Amino acid sequence: MNKMKKLFGGDLRQYAMLIALAFIVLLFQITTKGILLKPLNINNLIQQNSYVLILAIGMLPVILTGNVDLSVGSILGLTGAVAAELIIHKGAPVLPTMVLAVLLGGVMGAFQGFWIAYVNIPPFIVTLGGQLMFRGLTMALLKGLTLAPFPDSFKTISAGWIPDPFGGMPNFIKGDGTLHVLTLIVGAAACVLFVYSSLRARRKAQKYGQTSESFVAMILRCTIVCVAVIFVTYQLAVYRGIPCVLALLAILVIIYTFVTENTVLGRNVYAFGGNAKAARLAGINTRRTFFLTYVNMGLLAGLAGVIFSGRINSAAPASGDGFELDAIGSCYIGGASASGGIGKISGAIIGGLIMGVLNNGMSIMGIGIDIQMVIKGLVLIVAVAFDVMSKTKAAKA
Predict the structure, then answer these.
(1) 166, 229, 246, 260: which sits with the fewest CB atoms below 10 Å from its CB?
(2) 341 and 29 Cβ atoms separated by less than 8 Å
(3) What is the C-alpha to C-alpha distance for residues 243 and 158, in angstroms, rounded to an integer?
(4) Bridge partner list, 179
């Protein structure tokens, strides 16, 4: 175990989840007879799981504080319902309505954050109450009915593709069809940037005497990620190119990775989760930090509401039901600690992809929803058990 920690710089769980994702993909690729990684299905995987991944990005800072938000599915449903009411019934313009829906999510997050951060009501109670309140408001607004359809411009962000300014090129690999050139360029650039950022992070860790992964481990990680990126971008290039929602996800991942790992606010969130009392004594405004995590969660839940509504082309009273559990599960599976202070955006994305591939692969195989829920529950328990056992072993050492 010590040799493994030396090889991977102590970050064993991140590597374990990355390898687990690769294994699960390979397993379902075999059991579904190649359907899982067909271009059309990869596109569906991205679009079907985009809103859960967005919720997971927002949920991670909340979990870093040692808490969860049980209301995000209801916020998603209510923001989608408001957008549908304004656009379909009132004829409101699409873009301002989308912005309003996202801001409404932020307001709901701020409402909960106030009671949590400034009135000291436990987050579990506040967000459980928010879950019930916002779901009730959704049902009242929609009057128990489903509103549809949305205009095409509303659906673009969730179900559209970025056009190719290069006009495409012949597919010499398959011998027929065309390739989306912009997608190939973006995939190659993503690999270069990932390798560069990995080298930069390793040099920075060594400079400040922090534990860093070995060069071999870094090469292994970069190889796995780059092979996956090249394969996926090629498959997308064969189909219709980069989905708009994938571009949005990439932007969010970059922004939130930078904020959580390279800004004062991000360090404050980690410090709060590590030891709230110590963070307060160090001069950190813990109330404001706590409050902002829930505002941020509300904003991303509002964005997820817009995307989910566009994806299904409707707003329904049950929209978002149970999505908070998928978001929380994604973070825990991706390496976030149940006690707070530990976790990364990249880990939350890996966890979300594991959940998405499990759902998609089992559905293709015809496995019932009941068995799917059992398997996902077991995966979540094992992921958290791994965290608890690792901490127990570290404490004894």
Answers:
(1) 166
(2) no
(3) 8
(4) 169
